[in-house]
């Protein structure tokens, strides 16, 4: 027996019922839109400016697309060493650069380059560049030992040679001070109070080489930077496989030109030669590299550094 009765929904009475055709009703949205409010003039100005900028960007894009069809971009695999012209750089025996323009004018004070280096891994390339700079400028050189270092070999204390001839400080063009210090990598400053140190042997070598005042094309400068990084990170610090690849690349480049970049000595040659000496790969180098190394060693700055390796 059911608990309660429900009215039946079938039969003639159910047919008379008007059932809804949807779940529920909503008011119609198709009515006359209310009058638009007045737009802020600043918003109109912003929209106009945006449209103008987009129009100009579209015009620039069209112009660039047209130029890209007219100009042929060289292939990335092209050997750019063939592009370097013989007269791209001047020899290192040319006149020096304007040090006041490059290092800033100190109103009579001697510009002093101070380098901190670890005696356990001496930066040979900086010593070679020091000797090259001495051929160009009158340099007051000095070597000191920091208290963080217990002992320094005698040959490193005399790496700048015997400083016997002393002249008044104001008669020198540049000061070059080397401090043997317990640092992870070489550091350099030439304005103690106003600049952050330049760190890394490659970066300091680039700076010192810039003091020769030579001007290079973008291609030549890029090749120099590439060889410097390759010498330090792959030839000096890389695996035996990486060193072999670098030596093969050097042998190919030196088969076309007397030096790594063009027909004149550059910072790339200095850093690469020193890296070969420190890694002990000089004796196993290919023929062109061996010939290039002898050309380097025939120069006095390189031969003086070789004495430090003995």
Automatic annotation (TrEMBL):
It is found in: Cytoplasm, Cytosol; Nucleus. Gene3D superfamilies: 1.20.1050.130. InterPro entries: AIMP2, AIMP2_LysRS-bd, AIMP2_thioredoxin, Glutathione-S-Trfase_C_sf, GST_C. Residues 109-199 form the AIMP2 thioredoxin-like domain. CDD domains: GST_C_AIMP2. GO terms for biological process: apoptotic process; cell differentiation; translation. Residues 236-298 form the Glutathione S-transferase C-terminal domain. It comes from the Eukaryota. Keywords: Apoptosis, Cytoplasm, Developmental protein, Differentiation, Nucleus, Phosphoprotein, Protein biosynthesis, Ubl conjugation. One of its GO terms (cellular component) is cytosol. Residues 1-35 form the AIMP2 lysyl-tRNA synthetase binding domain. Required for assembly and stability of the aminoacyl-tRNA synthase complex. Mediates ubiquitination and degradation of FUBP1, a transcriptional activator of MYC, leading to MYC down-regulation which is required for aveolar type II cell differentiation. Blocks MDM2-mediated ubiquitination and degradation of p53/TP53. Functions as a proapoptotic factor. Part of the multisynthetase complex (MSC), a multisubunit complex that groups tRNA ligases for Arg (RARS1), Asp (DARS1), Gln (QARS1), Ile (IARS1), Leu (LARS1), Lys (KARS1), Met (MARS1) the bifunctional ligase for Glu and Pro (EPRS1) and the auxiliary subunits AIMP1/p43, AIMP2/p38 and EEF1E1/p18. Interacts (via N-terminus) with KARS1. Interacts with EPRS1. Forms a linear complex that contains MARS1, EEF1E1, EPRS1 and AIMP2 that is at the core of the multisubunit complex. Binds FUBP1 (via C-terminus). This is Aminoacyl tRNA synthase complex-interacting multifunctional protein 2.
